[in-house]
């Protein structure tokens, strides 16, 4: 490889001692990834038995200590707690004097940028928001999944290079998100990833009820192809009875769901309406078919469907 393409060591942060406050699914994985890059995890905090076991498995020989002691030992501190707990944690650490000047304080919340770290900033900390756009299992496989993973990054201009270097060292790709756009960014990821799990789980439950012995094996190739097509082609990848305007089929679906899994009806109708709107907007659903289809979706919400003949 040509030497001109080698990373400039000046663009990489010095080897750092790393601490983790909140040994949930994310923190130990990121600390383990940083360890592979040459940094040194020195302390973690965790309360539940699950957190203790996870930290022991992914960060062996790293002591579990109170959060204030994590900050005392580490140059780089990962705050990997739930979003709603983050503001209180930062305020508490700053008020008790746990934050040291020059300390890198990194949170992994998708919702927040760096403003949530202002109490620590006033104490002299260097604030970074590094959110991995990845779902975590709490096992070693998470470290492997960071390879090529996008990180939503928000940081002051003077820390931009440091933020990029840390993300790249963890195997990720930095994607800059403006402070004011963090909530929208996070909502988009939740809509796509979290709701996908719900949709797939409900689909597997229904397939089992329909007598399918291996719903995962049936859905795997189908959902893999659908995801690939959607990422490549967007709305042009839409298929199925809603996009075709098959109102009678959709009515039959609603009737069966209401009979066998009534808890899924609201979700089916909401997604069908959203699909119909997008299919109409992109010319996939013919307007003359849309009227009957939207009628089915409207009556379906009220529990009145006629599957054999379509909408009344």
Widest beta sheet: strand line-up:
2-1-3-4-5-6-7
Provide the β-strand percentage band: 5-15%
Order of helices and strands: EHEHHEHEHEHEHEHHHHHH
Please report the distance between the alpha carbons of the first and last residues. Answer: 70 Å
Notes on the protein architecture:
With 312 residues, the protein is of the alpha/beta class. 50% of the residues lie in helices and 11% in strands. It contains 13 helices and 7 strands. The protein starts with 16 loop residues before the first strand and ends in an 11-residue tail after the last helix.
Helices and strands in order:
Layout: E1 17-21, H1 26-36, E2 40-45, H2 49-58, H3 67-73, E3 76-79, H4 86-95, E4 104-107, H5 118-122, E5 126-132, H6 141-145, E6 150-154, H7 160-169, E7 173-176, H8 182-209, H9 215-233, H10 241-244, H11 247-260, H12 265-281, H13 287-301
Parallel strand pairs: 1-2, 1-3, 3-4, 4-5, 6-7
Antiparallel strand pairs: 5-6
Helix pairs in contact: 11-13, 12-13
List the main descriptive attributes of the protein structure presented here:
312 residues; seven-stranded mixed sheet; 13 helices; 11% strand; elongated; disordered C terminus
Task: Write a brief structural summary.
The protein contains 13 helices and seven strands.
């Amino acid at each position: 490889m040509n030497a001109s393409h080698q990373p400039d060591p000046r663009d990489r942060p010095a080897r750092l001692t790393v601490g983790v406050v909140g040994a949930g699914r994310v923190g130990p994985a990121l600390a383990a990834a940083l360890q592979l890059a040459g940094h040194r995890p020195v302390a973690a905090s965790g309360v539940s038995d699950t957190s203790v076991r996870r930290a022991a498995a992914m960060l062996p020989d790293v002591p579990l200590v109170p959060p204030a002691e994590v900050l005392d030992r580490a140059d780089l501190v990962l705050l990997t707690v739930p979003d709603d707990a983050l503001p209180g944690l930062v305020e508490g650490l700053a008020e008790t004097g746990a934050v040291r000047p020059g300390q890198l304080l990194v949170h992994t919340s998708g919702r927040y940028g760096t403003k949530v770290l202002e109490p620590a900033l006033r104490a002299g900390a260097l604030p970074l928001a590094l959110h991995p756009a990845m779902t975590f299992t709490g096992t070693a496989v998470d470290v492997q999944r960071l390879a090529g993973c996008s990180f939503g990054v928000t940081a002051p201009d003077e820390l931009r290079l440091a933020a990029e270097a840390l993300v790249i060292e963890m195997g990720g790709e930095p994607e800059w998100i403006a402070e004011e756009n963090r909530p929208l960014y996070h909502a988009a990821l939740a809509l796509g990833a979290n709701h996908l799990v719900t949709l797939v789980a409900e689909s597997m439950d229904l397939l089992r009820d329909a007598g399918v012995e291996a719903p995962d094996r049936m859905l795997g190739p189908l959902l893999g192809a659908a995801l690939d097509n959607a990422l490549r082609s967007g709305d042009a990848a839409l298929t199925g009875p809603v996009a075709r305007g098959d109102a009678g089929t959709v009515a039959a679906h609603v009737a069966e769901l209401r009979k066998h899994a009534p808890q899924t009806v609201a979700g089916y109708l909401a997604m069908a309406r959203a699909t119909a709107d997008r299919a109409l907007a992109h010319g996939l659903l013919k307007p003359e078919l849309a009227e009957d289809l939207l009628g089915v979706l409207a009556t379906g919400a009220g529990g009145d469907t006629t599957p054999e003949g379509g909408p009344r």
